[in-house]
Design brief:
The complex is a heterodimer. Chain A is mainly alpha-helical. Chain A contains 4 helices and no strands. Chain B folds into 2 domains: 141 residues, no CATH class; 107 residues, no CATH class. In chain B, strands 1-2 form a two-stranded antiparallel sheet. In chain B, strands 3-4 form a two-stranded antiparallel ribbon. The mean pLDDT of chain B is 94. The chains are: A mainly alpha, B mainly alpha. Chains A and B meet through helix 1 and helix 4 of A and strand 4 and helix 11 of B.
Protein backbone atom coordinates (compact mmCIF):
# COMPACT_ATOMS: atom_id res chain seq x y z
CA UNK A 1 0.00 0.00 0.00
CA UNK A 2 1.40 3.37 -0.95
CA UNK A 3 1.54 6.03 1.70
CA UNK A 4 -0.79 8.93 1.01
CA UNK A 5 2.18 11.30 0.93
CA UNK A 6 3.87 9.32 -1.82
CA UNK A 7 0.58 9.07 -3.71
CA UNK A 8 0.11 12.83 -3.54
CA UNK A 9 3.66 13.47 -4.72
CA UNK A 10 3.20 11.09 -7.62
CA UNK A 11 -0.10 12.69 -8.58
CA UNK A 12 1.44 16.13 -8.41
CA UNK A 13 4.38 14.93 -10.49
CA UNK A 14 2.09 13.53 -13.17
CA UNK A 15 0.12 16.79 -13.22
CA UNK A 16 3.23 18.91 -13.59
CA UNK A 17 4.64 16.74 -16.36
CA UNK A 18 1.25 16.68 -18.07
CA UNK A 19 0.97 20.45 -17.88
CA UNK A 20 4.48 20.77 -19.28
CA UNK A 21 3.66 18.50 -22.22
CA UNK A 22 0.41 20.39 -22.87
CA UNK A 23 2.24 23.71 -22.85
CA UNK A 24 4.93 22.37 -25.17
CA UNK A 25 2.30 21.20 -27.63
CA UNK A 26 0.39 24.46 -27.44
CA UNK A 27 3.68 26.25 -28.12
CA UNK A 28 4.27 23.96 -31.10
CA UNK A 29 0.85 24.94 -32.46
CA UNK A 30 1.86 28.59 -32.32
CA UNK A 31 5.16 27.85 -34.02
CA UNK A 32 3.42 25.88 -36.79
CA UNK A 33 0.93 28.72 -37.27
CA UNK A 34 3.85 31.15 -37.56
CA UNK A 35 5.42 28.89 -40.17
CA UNK A 36 2.20 28.76 -42.15
CA UNK A 37 1.86 32.53 -41.93
CA UNK A 38 5.39 32.86 -43.26
CA UNK A 39 4.67 30.51 -46.17
CA UNK A 40 1.46 32.33 -47.01
CA UNK A 41 3.32 35.64 -47.15
CA UNK A 42 6.08 34.09 -49.26
CA UNK A 43 3.49 32.60 -51.58
CA UNK A 44 1.78 35.95 -52.04
CA UNK A 45 5.09 37.67 -52.77
CA UNK A 46 6.06 34.90 -55.21
CA UNK A 47 2.72 35.28 -56.95
CA UNK A 48 3.45 38.93 -57.72
CA UNK A 49 6.96 38.13 -58.92
CA UNK A 50 5.91 35.10 -60.99
CA UNK A 51 3.27 37.24 -62.74
CA UNK A 52 6.10 39.48 -63.99
CA UNK A 53 8.16 36.44 -64.98
CA UNK A 54 5.28 34.99 -66.99
CA UNK A 55 4.49 38.34 -68.62
CA UNK A 56 1.08 38.57 -66.93
CA UNK A 57 2.15 41.80 -65.21
CA UNK A 58 4.56 44.49 -66.41
CA UNK A 59 8.01 44.69 -64.88
CA UNK A 60 7.91 47.11 -61.98
CA UNK A 61 11.01 47.58 -59.83
CA UNK A 62 8.82 48.81 -56.96
CA UNK A 63 6.75 45.60 -56.98
CA UNK A 64 9.94 43.52 -57.04
CA UNK A 65 11.34 45.41 -54.08
CA UNK A 66 8.10 45.28 -52.11
CA UNK A 67 7.80 41.52 -52.73
CA UNK A 68 11.37 40.82 -51.66
CA UNK A 69 10.92 43.04 -48.58
CA UNK A 70 7.77 41.12 -47.70
CA UNK A 71 9.71 37.85 -47.91
CA UNK A 72 12.52 39.22 -45.77
CA UNK A 73 9.95 40.40 -43.21
CA UNK A 74 8.22 37.00 -43.22
CA UNK A 75 11.58 35.30 -42.75
CA UNK A 76 12.44 37.56 -39.81
CA UNK A 77 9.03 37.12 -38.18
CA UNK A 78 9.33 33.35 -38.47
CA UNK A 79 12.74 33.47 -36.83
CA UNK A 80 11.29 35.59 -34.03
CA UNK A 81 8.48 33.06 -33.49
CA UNK A 82 10.93 30.13 -33.52
CA UNK A 83 8.81 28.75 -36.36
CA UNK A 84 11.55 26.39 -37.51
CA UNK A 85 12.80 25.10 -34.15
CA UNK A 86 12.76 21.35 -33.63
CA UNK A 87 10.13 21.87 -30.92
CA UNK A 88 7.66 22.69 -33.70
CA UNK A 89 7.88 19.25 -35.28
CA UNK A 90 4.45 18.12 -34.15
CA UNK A 91 1.41 20.18 -33.19
CA UNK A 92 -1.27 19.49 -30.59
CA UNK A 93 -4.33 20.43 -32.57
CA UNK A 94 -3.09 21.53 -35.97
CA UNK A 95 -1.52 19.57 -38.76
CA UNK A 96 1.84 20.48 -40.23
CA UNK A 97 3.05 19.70 -43.75
CA UNK A 98 6.67 19.95 -42.68
CA UNK A 99 8.41 16.57 -42.72
CA UNK A 100 10.27 15.54 -39.54
CA UNK A 101 13.34 14.94 -41.76
CA UNK A 102 13.90 18.71 -41.52
CA UNK A 103 15.15 18.18 -37.99
CA UNK A 104 16.81 14.79 -38.50
CA UNK A 105 20.54 14.21 -38.52
CA UNK A 106 22.10 14.98 -41.88
CA UNK A 107 19.28 17.38 -42.79
CA UNK A 108 20.17 19.72 -45.64
CA UNK A 109 17.62 22.28 -44.55
CA UNK A 110 20.30 24.81 -43.55
CA UNK A 111 21.83 24.78 -47.03
CA UNK A 112 18.38 24.94 -48.62
CA UNK A 113 17.51 27.95 -46.48
CA UNK A 114 20.78 29.66 -47.41
CA UNK A 115 20.06 29.06 -51.11
CA UNK A 116 16.77 30.94 -50.64
CA UNK A 117 18.48 33.86 -48.88
CA UNK A 118 21.15 34.02 -51.59
CA UNK A 119 18.57 33.91 -54.39
CA UNK A 120 16.67 36.78 -52.76
CA UNK A 121 19.87 38.81 -52.51
CA UNK A 122 20.70 38.12 -56.16
CA UNK A 123 17.23 39.12 -57.32
CA UNK A 124 17.31 42.29 -55.20
CA UNK A 125 20.51 43.30 -57.00
CA UNK A 126 18.80 43.31 -60.42
CA UNK A 127 17.80 46.66 -61.88
CA UNK A 128 15.93 45.87 -65.08
CA UNK A 129 13.51 43.39 -66.61
CA UNK A 130 16.20 41.28 -68.31
CA UNK A 131 18.15 40.98 -65.08
CA UNK A 132 14.98 40.12 -63.18
CA UNK A 133 14.00 37.38 -65.62
CA UNK A 134 17.49 35.90 -65.48
CA UNK A 135 17.54 35.83 -61.67
CA UNK A 136 13.96 34.91 -60.76
CA UNK A 137 14.04 31.18 -61.70
CA UNK A 138 16.79 30.57 -59.13
CA UNK A 139 14.55 32.04 -56.42
CA UNK A 140 11.63 29.80 -57.41
CA UNK A 141 13.94 26.80 -57.63
CA UNK A 142 15.25 27.52 -54.12
CA UNK A 143 11.67 27.28 -52.81
CA UNK A 144 11.21 24.04 -54.75
CA UNK A 145 14.49 22.63 -53.47
CA UNK A 146 13.13 22.60 -49.94
CA UNK A 147 9.50 21.78 -50.83
CA UNK A 148 10.41 18.73 -52.85
CA UNK A 149 12.47 17.27 -50.06
CA UNK A 150 10.82 18.47 -46.86
CA UNK A 151 7.16 19.16 -47.55
CA UNK A 152 4.54 16.44 -47.26
CA UNK A 153 2.42 16.16 -50.41
CA UNK A 154 -0.90 17.73 -49.43
CA UNK A 155 -2.99 16.80 -52.42
CA UNK B 1 -6.48 -27.68 -50.28
CA UNK B 2 -4.42 -29.33 -53.01
CA UNK B 3 -6.85 -27.97 -55.59
CA UNK B 4 -6.57 -24.53 -54.01
CA UNK B 5 -2.80 -24.60 -54.17
CA UNK B 6 -2.95 -25.83 -57.74
CA UNK B 7 -5.34 -23.03 -58.65
CA UNK B 8 -3.07 -20.47 -56.96
CA UNK B 9 -0.06 -21.89 -58.79
CA UNK B 10 -1.80 -21.75 -62.15
CA UNK B 11 -3.36 -18.31 -61.67
CA UNK B 12 -0.17 -16.78 -60.29
CA UNK B 13 2.08 -18.13 -63.06
CA UNK B 14 3.76 -15.52 -65.28
CA UNK B 15 1.93 -15.13 -68.59
CA UNK B 16 4.45 -13.64 -70.99
CA UNK B 17 3.74 -12.46 -74.49
CA UNK B 18 4.98 -14.90 -77.15
CA UNK B 19 7.93 -13.90 -79.36
CA UNK B 20 5.42 -13.51 -82.19
CA UNK B 21 4.04 -10.42 -80.38
CA UNK B 22 7.09 -8.48 -81.56
CA UNK B 23 6.13 -6.84 -84.87
CA UNK B 24 8.46 -6.19 -87.76
CA UNK B 25 9.55 -2.69 -86.82
CA UNK B 26 12.33 -0.27 -87.70
CA UNK B 27 13.16 1.16 -84.29
CA UNK B 28 13.10 4.92 -83.86
CA UNK B 29 15.47 5.83 -81.03
CA UNK B 30 14.39 9.49 -81.09
CA UNK B 31 10.79 8.49 -80.37
CA UNK B 32 12.20 6.12 -77.73
CA UNK B 33 14.00 9.02 -76.05
CA UNK B 34 10.81 11.08 -76.01
CA UNK B 35 8.88 8.20 -74.40
CA UNK B 36 11.75 7.56 -71.97
CA UNK B 37 11.39 11.18 -70.82
CA UNK B 38 7.60 10.96 -70.71
CA UNK B 39 7.94 7.88 -68.51
CA UNK B 40 10.63 9.48 -66.39
CA UNK B 41 12.51 6.16 -66.40
CA UNK B 42 15.66 7.79 -65.07
CA UNK B 43 13.98 9.12 -61.92
CA UNK B 44 13.76 5.59 -60.50
CA UNK B 45 16.60 3.88 -62.37
CA UNK B 46 19.17 6.42 -61.25
CA UNK B 47 22.74 5.46 -60.36
CA UNK B 48 23.71 3.94 -57.03
CA UNK B 49 24.69 6.94 -54.87
CA UNK B 50 27.21 4.80 -52.94
CA UNK B 51 29.37 4.26 -56.02
CA UNK B 52 31.58 7.22 -56.89
CA UNK B 53 32.08 8.43 -60.45
CA UNK B 54 28.86 7.15 -62.05
CA UNK B 55 27.38 9.41 -64.73
CA UNK B 56 24.24 10.81 -63.11
CA UNK B 57 22.61 11.30 -66.52
CA UNK B 58 22.52 7.55 -67.25
CA UNK B 59 19.90 5.08 -65.92
CA UNK B 60 22.44 2.65 -64.48
CA UNK B 61 20.16 1.81 -61.55
CA UNK B 62 20.89 0.78 -57.99
CA UNK B 63 19.63 3.83 -56.12
CA UNK B 64 17.26 2.97 -53.24
CA UNK B 65 13.54 3.35 -53.95
CA UNK B 66 11.60 3.24 -50.69
CA UNK B 67 8.14 1.69 -50.69
CA UNK B 68 5.86 0.67 -47.82
CA UNK B 69 6.84 -2.99 -48.38
CA UNK B 70 10.58 -2.35 -48.30
CA UNK B 71 13.41 -0.82 -50.27
CA UNK B 72 13.73 -1.67 -53.95
CA UNK B 73 16.75 -1.03 -56.15
CA UNK B 74 15.54 -0.43 -59.72
CA UNK B 75 17.98 -2.18 -62.07
CA UNK B 76 20.46 -1.04 -64.69
CA UNK B 77 18.85 0.05 -67.98
CA UNK B 78 22.11 0.72 -69.84
CA UNK B 79 23.22 -1.80 -72.51
CA UNK B 80 25.93 -3.39 -70.33
CA UNK B 81 25.99 -7.11 -71.23
CA UNK B 82 26.60 -8.47 -67.72
CA UNK B 83 24.59 -6.12 -65.50
CA UNK B 84 22.31 -4.16 -67.85
CA UNK B 85 19.91 -4.95 -70.68
CA UNK B 86 22.65 -5.53 -73.29
CA UNK B 87 21.91 -9.25 -73.63
CA UNK B 88 18.12 -8.93 -73.52
CA UNK B 89 16.12 -9.81 -76.62
CA UNK B 90 13.26 -7.67 -77.90
CA UNK B 91 10.63 -9.99 -76.44
CA UNK B 92 12.40 -10.15 -73.06
CA UNK B 93 12.40 -6.36 -72.91
CA UNK B 94 8.75 -6.14 -74.00
CA UNK B 95 7.68 -8.70 -71.38
CA UNK B 96 9.48 -6.81 -68.62
CA UNK B 97 7.99 -3.44 -69.60
CA UNK B 98 4.48 -4.57 -70.57
CA UNK B 99 3.84 -7.69 -68.52
CA UNK B 100 6.10 -7.19 -65.50
CA UNK B 101 8.05 -10.38 -66.11
CA UNK B 102 11.83 -10.45 -65.72
CA UNK B 103 14.33 -12.12 -68.05
CA UNK B 104 14.40 -15.08 -65.65
CA UNK B 105 10.57 -15.35 -65.64
CA UNK B 106 9.93 -13.80 -62.21
CA UNK B 107 7.12 -11.35 -61.49
CA UNK B 108 8.42 -7.81 -61.13
CA UNK B 109 7.18 -5.68 -58.23
CA UNK B 110 4.67 -3.15 -59.63
CA UNK B 111 6.50 -0.11 -58.27
CA UNK B 112 7.65 -0.54 -61.88
CA UNK B 113 4.49 0.77 -63.58
CA UNK B 114 4.05 -1.94 -66.21
CA UNK B 115 0.30 -1.76 -65.58
CA UNK B 116 0.42 1.54 -67.52
CA UNK B 117 3.08 0.49 -70.02
CA UNK B 118 0.94 -2.56 -70.92
CA UNK B 119 -1.32 -0.12 -72.82
CA UNK B 120 1.45 1.01 -75.19
CA UNK B 121 1.92 -0.33 -78.73
CA UNK B 122 4.79 -2.85 -78.75
CA UNK B 123 6.51 -0.72 -81.41
CA UNK B 124 6.82 2.19 -78.94
CA UNK B 125 8.38 -0.12 -76.35
CA UNK B 126 10.89 -1.30 -78.96
CA UNK B 127 11.73 2.36 -79.64
CA UNK B 128 12.51 2.85 -75.93
CA UNK B 129 14.74 -0.22 -76.10
CA UNK B 130 16.52 1.21 -79.15
CA UNK B 131 17.15 4.47 -77.26
CA UNK B 132 18.49 2.60 -74.20
CA UNK B 133 20.73 0.48 -76.44
CA UNK B 134 22.21 3.70 -77.86
CA UNK B 135 23.42 4.81 -74.40
CA UNK B 136 26.94 4.06 -73.17
CA UNK B 137 26.99 0.81 -71.15
CA UNK B 138 27.64 1.14 -67.42
CA UNK B 139 28.58 -1.83 -65.24
CA UNK B 140 26.25 -1.59 -62.24
CA UNK B 141 25.35 -4.93 -60.63
CA UNK B 142 21.84 -5.77 -59.55
CA UNK B 143 21.02 -5.09 -55.89
CA UNK B 144 18.46 -7.39 -54.30
CA UNK B 145 15.29 -5.81 -52.95
CA UNK B 146 15.14 -5.40 -49.18
CA UNK B 147 11.69 -6.98 -49.08
CA UNK B 148 10.73 -9.70 -46.59
CA UNK B 149 9.58 -13.06 -48.02
CA UNK B 150 10.52 -11.92 -51.51
CA UNK B 151 9.96 -15.34 -53.09
CA UNK B 152 6.40 -15.79 -51.81
CA UNK B 153 5.66 -12.14 -52.49
CA UNK B 154 6.80 -12.43 -56.07
CA UNK B 155 4.69 -15.50 -56.73
CA UNK B 156 1.74 -13.86 -54.96
CA UNK B 157 2.12 -10.92 -57.32
CA UNK B 158 0.87 -13.24 -60.03
CA UNK B 159 -2.47 -13.27 -58.24
CA UNK B 160 -2.44 -9.49 -57.97
CA UNK B 161 -1.65 -9.19 -61.68
CA UNK B 162 -4.52 -11.56 -62.47
CA UNK B 163 -6.82 -8.99 -60.84
CA UNK B 164 -5.01 -5.73 -61.55
CA UNK B 165 -3.08 -6.01 -64.80
CA UNK B 166 -5.36 -4.92 -67.61
CA UNK B 167 -3.54 -5.62 -70.87
CA UNK B 168 -6.09 -3.85 -73.07
CA UNK B 169 -4.15 -1.62 -75.47
CA UNK B 170 -4.75 2.13 -75.38
CA UNK B 171 -7.18 3.18 -78.11
CA UNK B 172 -7.86 6.68 -79.41
CA UNK B 173 -11.30 8.18 -78.78
CA UNK B 174 -12.48 8.97 -82.30
CA UNK B 175 -14.89 11.62 -81.04
CA UNK B 176 -11.95 13.65 -79.70
CA UNK B 177 -9.26 15.69 -81.44
CA UNK B 178 -5.81 14.45 -82.36
CA UNK B 179 -4.27 16.63 -79.63
CA UNK B 180 -6.61 15.27 -76.95
CA UNK B 181 -5.75 11.72 -78.01
CA UNK B 182 -2.00 12.40 -77.99
CA UNK B 183 -2.39 13.74 -74.45
CA UNK B 184 -4.51 10.76 -73.45
CA UNK B 185 -1.88 8.36 -74.77
CA UNK B 186 1.02 10.10 -73.02
CA UNK B 187 -0.89 10.34 -69.71
CA UNK B 188 -2.29 6.79 -69.71
CA UNK B 189 0.60 4.94 -71.34
CA UNK B 190 4.21 6.06 -70.94
CA UNK B 191 3.46 8.93 -68.52
CA UNK B 192 1.74 6.51 -66.09
CA UNK B 193 0.14 9.46 -64.24
CA UNK B 194 -2.65 7.25 -62.90
CA UNK B 195 -0.22 5.11 -60.91
CA UNK B 196 -0.20 7.88 -58.29
CA UNK B 197 -3.07 10.19 -59.27
CA UNK B 198 -5.71 7.44 -59.48
CA UNK B 199 -6.52 5.97 -56.05
CA UNK B 200 -6.34 2.21 -55.52
CA UNK B 201 -9.08 -0.16 -54.42
CA UNK B 202 -9.04 -2.95 -51.85
CA UNK B 203 -6.91 -5.10 -54.16
CA UNK B 204 -4.43 -2.25 -54.68
CA UNK B 205 -5.56 -2.05 -58.30
CA UNK B 206 -6.27 1.34 -59.88
CA UNK B 207 -9.87 2.31 -59.11
CA UNK B 208 -10.90 3.33 -62.62
CA UNK B 209 -14.17 4.80 -61.33
CA UNK B 210 -12.04 7.50 -59.65
CA UNK B 211 -9.66 8.01 -62.59
CA UNK B 212 -7.03 10.69 -61.80
CA UNK B 213 -9.06 11.90 -58.81
CA UNK B 214 -6.14 11.75 -56.36
CA UNK B 215 -5.77 9.85 -53.14
CA UNK B 216 -3.27 8.79 -50.51
CA UNK B 217 0.39 9.16 -51.47
CA UNK B 218 1.92 5.78 -52.37
CA UNK B 219 4.81 6.37 -49.98
CA UNK B 220 2.33 6.48 -47.11
CA UNK B 221 2.58 10.14 -46.07
CA UNK B 222 0.31 12.86 -47.41
CA UNK B 223 -1.95 13.02 -50.43
CA UNK B 224 -1.73 13.09 -54.21
CA UNK B 225 -3.91 15.78 -55.82
CA UNK B 226 -6.81 15.16 -58.15
CA UNK B 227 -6.17 16.15 -61.77
CA UNK B 228 -9.81 17.02 -62.35
CA UNK B 229 -11.05 20.62 -62.43
CA UNK B 230 -7.50 21.98 -62.67
CA UNK B 231 -8.80 25.25 -64.07
CA UNK B 232 -12.16 25.40 -62.25
CA UNK B 233 -10.30 25.02 -58.93
CA UNK B 234 -8.07 27.95 -60.00
CA UNK B 235 -4.94 25.84 -59.68
CA UNK B 236 -4.04 26.83 -63.26
CA UNK B 237 -5.39 29.70 -65.33
CA UNK B 238 -5.69 27.70 -68.53
CA UNK B 239 -4.00 24.89 -70.47
CA UNK B 240 -1.14 27.23 -71.50
CA UNK B 241 -0.51 27.99 -67.82
CA UNK B 242 -0.25 24.25 -67.11
CA UNK B 243 2.25 23.89 -69.98
CA UNK B 244 4.40 26.62 -68.41
CA UNK B 245 4.16 24.74 -65.10
CA UNK B 246 5.34 21.50 -66.77
CA UNK B 247 8.23 23.35 -68.39
CA UNK B 248 9.39 25.38 -65.42
CA UNK B 249 7.93 23.96 -62.22
CA UNK B 250 8.59 25.95 -59.11
CA UNK B 251 11.34 27.96 -60.80
CA UNK B 252 8.37 29.93 -62.18
CA UNK B 253 6.61 29.82 -58.82
CA UNK B 254 4.33 26.82 -59.54
CA UNK B 255 4.55 25.50 -56.01
CA UNK B 256 2.16 22.57 -56.60
CA UNK B 257 4.83 21.09 -58.88
CA UNK B 258 7.18 20.26 -56.02
CA UNK B 259 6.31 17.79 -53.28
CA UNK B 260 5.96 14.06 -53.10
CA UNK B 261 8.18 13.39 -56.13
CA UNK B 262 6.34 15.66 -58.58
CA UNK B 263 9.45 17.86 -58.89
CA UNK B 264 11.26 14.97 -60.55
CA UNK B 265 8.27 14.23 -62.77
CA UNK B 266 8.20 17.89 -63.80
CA UNK B 267 11.91 17.94 -64.63
CA UNK B 268 11.33 14.93 -66.94
CA UNK B 269 8.24 16.49 -68.51
CA UNK B 270 10.23 19.66 -69.20
CA UNK B 271 12.24 17.65 -71.75
CA UNK B 272 9.16 16.90 -73.90
CA UNK B 273 8.40 18.91 -77.05
CA UNK B 274 6.06 21.86 -76.54
CA UNK B 275 3.38 20.21 -78.70
CA UNK B 276 3.26 17.11 -76.51
CA UNK B 277 3.00 19.19 -73.33
CA UNK B 278 0.18 21.17 -74.91
CA UNK B 279 -1.55 17.86 -75.72
CA UNK B 280 -1.18 16.64 -72.13
CA UNK B 281 -2.46 19.95 -70.74
CA UNK B 282 -5.36 19.98 -73.20
CA UNK B 283 -6.31 16.42 -72.25
CA UNK B 284 -6.03 16.97 -68.49
CA UNK B 285 -7.94 20.24 -68.47
CA UNK B 286 -10.82 18.48 -70.25
CA UNK B 287 -11.69 16.73 -66.95
CA UNK B 288 -14.41 18.83 -65.39
Amino acid sequence: MLSSKLLKSLTAGVLVVGLGVTLAYAAADDQIKARQTEMKANGKAMGALAAIMKGEAPYDAAVVKASLDAMAAADAAAGEAKAWDASSMEGATIETWAKPEIWAEGSQVGAKYQAWVDARTALAATTDEAGFKAAFPALGASCGGCHEMYRKPKG
Amino acid sequence: MVLGLLAFWLVSAPRPLPASAVPAHTANAANGQLLYNAGGCKSCHKPNPDVAGLDSSLPSGGAPFKTPIGTLYPPNLTPDIETGIGAWSDIEFVNAVQRGISKDSQHLIPAFPYTSYARMPVADVLDIRAYLMSLPPVASPKRDAGVPLAFILRRGLGLWKWISLDTTAWMPDTTQSEGWNRGSYLVNGPGHCGECHTPRNLFMASDTSRFLMGGPHPEGVGKVPSLHKLIESKRYKDAADLVLAFQNGESFGYEHMSAGGMGQVQSNLAKLPQGDLEAIAYYLTSFK
